Amino acid sequence: MTAALPVHLSGSVPDSSTAELSHADPRDKRRPGAPSHAEIKALSGPSALHLPQLAESCRMDSFEDKLQQLREAFNAGRTRSAEFRAAQLQGLSHFLRDNKQQLQEALAQDLHKSAFESEVSEIAISQAEVDLALRNLRSWMKDEKVSKNLATQLDSAFIRKEPFGLVLIIVPWNYPLNLTLVPLVGAIAAGNCVVLKPSEISKATEKILAEVLPRYLDQSCFAVVLGGPQETGQLLEHRFDYIFFTGNTYVGKIVMAAAAKHLTPITLELGGKNPCYVDDNCDPQTVANRVAWFRYFNAGQTCVAPDYVLCSQEMQERLVPALQNAITRFYGDNPQTSPNLGRIINQKHFERLQGLLGCGRVAIGGQSDEGERYIAPTVLVDVQETEPVMQEEIFGPILPLVTVTNLDEAIEFINRREKPLALYAFSKRSQVIKQVLARTSSGGFCGNDGFMHMTLSSLPFGGVGTSGMGRYHGKFSFDTFSNQRACLLRSPGMEKINDLRYPPYTSRNLRVLLVAMEKRCCSCTLL
After folding, report:
1. How far apart are CA 109 and CA 116, in angstroms?
2. 519 CB contacts (<8 Å, ≥6 apart)?
3. Which of 80, 186, 260, 427 qualifies as a FRET site for 127, CA 20 to 30 Å off?
4. What DSSP element (H or E) covers 167?
5. Residue 37, Cα to own-chain centre: how many angstroms?
6. Do 288 and 363 touch, CB atoms closer than 8 A?
7. Do 304 and 116 meet the contact criterion of CB atoms below 8 Å apart?
8. SS3 (DSSP) at 160
9. What is the DSSP string of 374-426?
10. 343, 372 Cβ separation under 8 angstroms
């Protein structure tokens, strides 16, 4: 296992004297000892990835020492101040801006992501989360005052948002930058120390996260750990104060079991089979454009992508040619040559997806190239519910169409399966959209489009049931990584008032006390 550790923020920068460090960029509003933007940039220019031995090797026993160092930093209160948190968030912002080209190249190497998809789904969304946290950090950190009853009118009652402590964030390969930085923003804003475990499958992006990202953060409070399933299992044997995992349901159960041994709170961002219902009154080309875009975005390797479409036989006959038009418009007559279509992450997933191409009947696409790990944008029809493509999350550029006779049958089909991470419905009638929303359950819902709800940091993102637990994005990330501490500060004086609650008990005192407790705007529970 390798731990890539950040530079000491209070230490020196190579080839920089103390005098040179004193001439920092005046735009940098940072705590004393933090590196300037110019210093960081010098460490992470175009040649940064080629610098020798940027990541420090660390055996499991020495990693335990690192965990202890992180805990000591947290217990010393290093991460508590708003100034420290803001400095780390500014470091993330500089990381994104300084290394944009390297990040795009890494994402292209790992997933054949276009610059457009990398910018939209990885870099810009991460930057937006950083900017939002920086703008609102102090207001998020403020104590939240709550209503009081008559018995506590002279007291101070509030909720304090305190950090959990040492947080572990385990990241998947499909959006390796986004799914690292977005939860990291929340953990930093909430004042935690963090261990990051990026995916070993997206190797090029993992390299940047291990070798470049730590240079922008405080070494005493953050670490990046590398390794595969075995090392991750060893990592999970340690006690953390919070675990944030993004991945599939099977591994999510393993992570949850490991967390349970220490009663560690956890967020699980998982997946599932996301339904997409299409009403007969829809314009098929509009639906096809939107469905094709969010099905084949990132080569279908998106946890919120639609896993199947439910529609009538009549709509299917109109939708298939419309989907063909959309695919040709987006990726050309030969999608394999398109710079806008991604590739499957590795050979294992490629072979799994090839097996799914045998389900139902191929109406569009179906071609594959093992050498490139290319699978064409594919539409399947005549698919049976019992076939493998309908039994597992596809996570690739394959879209099954399943016919139903009416809306009720579609809803029944959805509800007899596990609750999905996302659910989509297309109709020109608002009543149809409202029915699907009211009669189903999912982590997220979008009417008449794809995963555009993901672009709103004002909406929580997360699953329900086997698609996950917990929420993040925007302030929801801050809340996820914060312990909501209930606080009541009472006066040490006026002891005579407390005689009402002390023995010997009387019926008169009980009546007065109950009245005092009932004069409130919120419920009160005595355990």
Report:
1. 15
2. 149, 150
3. 80
4. strand 166-170
5. 27
6. no
7. no
8. strand
9. EE--EEEES--TTSGGGTS---SSEEEEEE-SSHHHHHHHHHTSPPPSEEEEE
10. yes
Strand partners, 444: 422
- Residue 122 per-residue DSSP state: I
Give me the residue label for tokens 């097996």. Answer: 355
Question: What's at 130, amino acid-wise?
Answer: V
* Nearest CA-CA partner of 451 in 115, 121, 116: 121
Convert the pLDDT of each residue in 52-77 to its tens digit: 233 343 444 568 888 999 999 999 99
Rounded CA gap, 442 and 465, in Å? 9
Tokens coding 12: 């020196």
Q: How far is CA 152 from CA 147, 496, 500, 516, 526, in A?
A: 10, 14, 14, 9, 14
- Contacts (Cβ under 8 Å, ≥6 apart) of 88: 188, 217, 218, 221, 222
- CATH says 1-9+55-140+152-270+464-527 is which class? alpha beta
Cα gap 470→147, rounded to integer Å:
26
Per residue, what are the HEC states of 213-244? HHHHCCCCCEEEEECCHHHHHHHCCCCCCEEE
pTM exceeds 0.85: yes
Instruction: State the distance between the two ends of the chain, measured CA to CA, in whole angstroms.
Output: 46
Cα-based distances in Å from 192 to 81, 142, 276, 423, 428: 11, 16, 38, 33, 46
Q: Are residues 267 and 245 in contact, defined by beta-carbon separation less than 8 angstroms? A: yes
Largest CA distance in the chain: 88
Q: What does DSSP assign to residue 521?
A: S
Domain 275-462 class? alpha beta
The answer to whether 379 and 357 have CB atoms below 8 angstroms apart is no
Instruction: Give helix then strand counts, H and E, for the chain.
Output: 18, 20
Neighbour order of strands in the sheet with 144-145: 144-145, 156-163, 482-489
- Determine which of 13-17, 147-151, 327-331, 393-397 has the lowest per-residue pLDDT on average: 13-17
Paired tokens of 39: 């210093």
| Res 520: pLDDT | 53
Q: What are the residue numbers of the active site?
A: 269, 303
* Residues 377, 292 contacting (CB under 8 angstroms): yes
Q: What is the mean pLDDT of residues 42-56?
A: 32
Q: Where are the domains of the chain?
A: 1-9+55-140+152-270+464-527, 275-462
Do residues 229 and 197 lie in contact, with contact meaning Cβ atoms separated by under 8 Å? no
Residue identified by tokens 């947290």 is 74
* Cβ atoms < 10 Å from Cβ of 525: 4
